Amino acid sequence: MNLTSFYVFISRVRTFDGLRLLQHVPSALSELTEMQHNELLIAWDRGYDSRGMWNPNLASNALETVRTRRASLFASNAAKKADKKKAEAAAKKAT
Question: Are residues 73 and 61 in the same domain?
Answer without folding.
Answer: yes
